[in-house]
Amino acid sequence: MAQLRAIVAIFLSLCLFASSVQGKATKVTYCDKKGNYDVKVEGVEISPYPVARGKPATFSISATSGEKITGGKIEIDVSYFGLHVHSETQDLCSGTTSCPISAGDFVISHSQVLPGFTPPGSYTLRMRIFDENKHQLTCIGFQFSIGFGSASDVASI
């Protein structure tokens, strides 16, 4: 009986580990549902999912633009259970993607390590992209989760 419990525990640990290191496509909503944004966001992939505290997480945003983008900025606001917890502004062309961005499909990718003390749970991220003339190109929101432990924590069970 003890052997069966050990096998079940190992199997569950492996399942949890596998689900935590795979990426997840996340549902995206536009800030203004009636807005006609110049940049259309097709999806966001978050890896690993859920995000592990103290470990790198990558957010990859697939988008399309009808016109070339030569510069701009990204504004990010994060909320935890409805409470604003973080804001940052980044240069669109420094690290997230390279400019100029040709008309058509492109990906903005951003990796970040969340502090080990970040509370687990559900977060909402709002991202706005502006061109170099401060014209808003898009505004999206999506949810993501931060797990209770890292993948290595689960693997060591």
UniProtKB/TrEMBL annotation:
<dbReference type="InterPro" id="IPR003172">
    <property type="entry name" value="ML_dom"/>
</dbReference>
<comment type="similarity">
    <text>Belongs to the NPC2 family.</text>
</comment>
<feature type="domain" description="MD-2-related lipid-recognition">
    <location>
        <begin position="28"/>
        <end position="144"/>
    </location>
</feature>
<comment type="function">
    <text>Catalyzes the intermembrane transfer of phosphatidylglycerol and phosphatidylinositol.</text>
</comment>
<dbReference type="GO" id="GO:0032366">
    <property type="term" value="P:intracellular sterol transport"/>
</dbReference>
<dbReference type="InterPro" id="IPR039670">
    <property type="entry name" value="NPC2-like"/>
</dbReference>
<dbReference type="InterPro" id="IPR014756">
    <property type="entry name" value="Ig_E-set"/>
</dbReference>
<keyword id="KW-0813">Transport</keyword>
<keyword id="KW-0732">Signal</keyword>
<keyword id="KW-0445">Lipid transport</keyword>
<protein>
    <recommendedName>
        <fullName>MD-2-related lipid-recognition domain-containing protein</fullName>
    </recommendedName>
</protein>
<dbReference type="Pfam" id="PF02221">
    <property type="entry name" value="E1_DerP2_DerF2"/>
</dbReference>
<feature type="domain" description="ML-like">
    <location>
        <begin position="5"/>
        <end position="151"/>
    </location>
</feature>
<dbReference type="GO" id="GO:0032934">
    <property type="term" value="F:sterol binding"/>
</dbReference>
<dbReference type="InterPro" id="IPR032800">
    <property type="entry name" value="TRP_N"/>
</dbReference>
<dbReference type="InterPro" id="IPR033917">
    <property type="entry name" value="ML_PG-PI_TP"/>
</dbReference>
<feature type="signal peptide">
    <location>
        <begin position="1"/>
        <end position="23"/>
    </location>
</feature>
<comment type="subunit">
    <text>Monomer.</text>
</comment>
